[in-house]
Each structure stands twice: as C-alpha cells, then as structure tokens.
Amino acid sequence: MPAEFNDRITALMSLVSQPHVVEVLDTVDAGPLNVVDVVTRTRLSRRRAAGVLRALAADGIVTRCGTTGSWDDRDDPNTMYTLTTAGRATMRELYTLDVWNEMYARRQGDAVPPDGEPQP
After folding, report:
1. Chain centre distance of CA 84
2. What are the DSSP E strand ranges found in the chain?
3. Which of 24, 40, 49, 50 could form a disulfide with 44 if both were Cys (CB 3.0 to 4.6 A apart)?
C-alpha cells in the first residue's frame, strides 16, 4: 500500500471520527448553503452546526462565500458555506467504497500495515 494512500486514510479517519462531520459534509456537498439550511437538513442545533463548519474550515475543507472577518463573530444568517477545492477532493474520496472499506478494516484491526505485508 503506498504511503500516500496510508496517510490519506489516516487523515480521513480522523476527519470522519468527529461527530456530525459526515452529515455536514454531505449537506454542504449539495451546493452553497447557509447555516439555517445546514441546520434544517442535518437537524443539528445552530451552535453544533456552526462548530462543525468552523472545524471543517480550520481543516481547509469548507469556506464562507463572499464574506470576510473573524470566525469568532456570529455569521449573518445569509452567509453561505461551500466546499473548497480540498473539500471537493475529500468528498470524491469519501464516495469511494475502497476508502470506507480500508477505514473499516483499520477500525477492526484487519488493515494491511504500511509495509504491505499482511499480519499472520
């Protein structure tokens, strides 16, 4: 298994292990949305949805459209969120069954180690 694939799987596992990240990513993947749309589609509280969006923004996966300023300020309800180029690449990876199979195998302890040799 290439080291790059191994590193990417590790990063994706870290990302999707955070609560509600997968739901918010799937929602924002539909196109630019405001917090109210994210809350409505995910049924998260506004505070939780905003927290997930901030975490995804810190990882460079989402961004606010057409606004500047601090993420510490409460957003205008019309502020739109969208995936970045890195976010779209992440979503393409998450839509791949092989990625989920590998993450599942690692969680179960059945993954092939980085050197490519299966455990006995």
Report:
1. 11
2. 33-34, 62-65, 80-83
3. 49
Q: How many residues in the chain?
A: 120
Mean local confidence (pLDDT), 30-50? 94
Provide CB contacts within 8 A for 62, sequence distance 6+.
28, 53, 56, 81, 82, 83, 84, 87
Question: Which strands form 33-34's sheet, in the order they lie side by side?
Answer: 33-34, 80-83, 62-65
85-94 and 21-28 helices, crossing angle to 10°: 110
| Dist. CA 41–CA 34, nearest whole Å | 11
Which amino acid, 98? Answer: D
Q: What is the pLDDT of residue 41?
A: 96
Q: Which residue has the higher pLDDT, 60 or 112?
A: 60
